[in-house]
Amino acid sequence: MAKVINQLTRDFPEATTALRYETPFQLLIATLLSAQCTDTVVNRVTPILFLHYPTPDKMVAADLHSIESIIRSTGFYKNKTRHILGTSRGLIERFGGHVPNTMEALISLPGIGRKTANLVLGEIFHQPTIVVDTHVRRVSNRLQFTKSDNPNNIEFDLRPLIPVKQWTSGAHRILLHGRHVCRARIPKCGECSLFNLCPDEKNKTRRV
Prior knowledge:
By secondary structure, the protein is mostly helical.
């Protein structure tokens, strides 16, 4: 893992989320919208959403159908709208309208799981966290750092392998490697800087 992180640090020196936001609340909602959706699509939707509803107060006062129409392209828009409104209401009623800075508090909000909470805690509050999305899950399995498909199990499998101070940046670099190189269907093994470290002989293709 140390060799992997060192190489990915060279490959991806800038390790931060691609989601665009201006406030902790906006990152929380953007991450909620990113479930089963690409960051590119979310980034097309959120400027419109946050132009009209930039705060929890504005969001809970919004017309339900207005939110649905704005976020429709992100998929599962009815459930996401319900979670957005529930989370906004929870922030107002229980946290004074502010995004809390603990895992326990964040995952108590509607639609907020460990992935979203970890991203917010790492990006906003600079706490060491490991975000496990589909890319981190795939790369971690191919590199045989885990044998699980469960994001929570993968997070705890990776924790002892990465120095705590590199949890946030290291996990994000693994994510970027999965997004751009170690793709699901056709991995770019010919361009992969981790080729010689990768034990996944079943999925990787030989260099030309």
